Amino acid sequence: MAIIKPFKGIRPPQALVEKVESRPYDVLNSEEARAEAGDNEMSLYHIIKPEIDFPVGTDEHDPRVYDKAAENFQKFQDKGWLVQDDKENYYVYAQTMNGKTQYGLVVCAYVDDYMTGVIKKHELTRRDKEEDRMKHVRVNNANVEPVFFAYPDNAKLDALVAKYTAKAPVYDFIAPIDGFGHQFWIIDEAEDITAITAEFAAMPALYIADGHHRSAAAALVGAEKAKQNPNHRGDEEYNYFMAVCFPANQLTIIDYNRVVKDLNGLTAQQFLDAVSKNFIVEEKGAEIYKPTALHNFSLYLEGKWYSLTAKEGTYDDNDPIGVLDVTISSNLILDEILGIKDLRSDKRIDFVGGIRGLGELKKRVDSGEMKVALALYPVSMKQLMDIADSGNIMPPKTTWFEPKLRSGLVVHKLV
Question: What is the pTM of this model?
Answer without folding.
Answer: 0.91
